[in-house]
Amino acid sequence: MSGLERVENEEQLVKQAVRGDDRALSDLLRGHYAMLYRYMLKVTMNKAMAEDLVQETMLKAIERIGTFRLQSKFSTWLISIATRRYIDEMRKQQREQKWQTQEQALQAIRFDAAMQRQDWPHALDALGALSYEIRVPILLKYYYGYAYEEIAAWLDIPVGTVKSRLHNGLKQLRKELEADE
Questions:
Q1: Contact (CB, 8 A) for 123 and 114
Q2: Model pTM?
Q3: Residue 170 and residue 181: Cα distance in Å, rounded?
Q4: Which of 82, 95, 13 is nearest to 50 (CA)?
């Protein structure tokens, strides 16, 4: 098959896939898998992540084939999906890393350490000045060591709300304790 025939065949497969032909879509995805994997391997420099992202890209392509407008090559469309998935994954990892870094830094400010110093009454005052919605998660997480999920279940709030209250509460505590040092 010549290069022109291959291009015309691909254009025909794309048109059929957009119209709902699962066989044509399957042939297209199979034909582009190796190219997309090589691209993601170069982007991620991580074999496992590249494999995961290619699989996610293929699933997105299956879900969204009806939105493909034939204004670019099919391979370009797949690469754009894969690139967006990679960027989303990197943002997610950065957020998780930020939370972990904050968590480690905040755990270093253990209340029992503050209470062992001479200023434990001040630490208790600062803690007492917080609203109960913030104070309770702080005590449960950093003094008693419970997991976010457990705290969320006990307080009947989302895990994200627990994390937000912990972040904001510890920021308030740190500000109050540093102001008096």
A1: yes
A2: 0.55
A3: 16
A4: 82
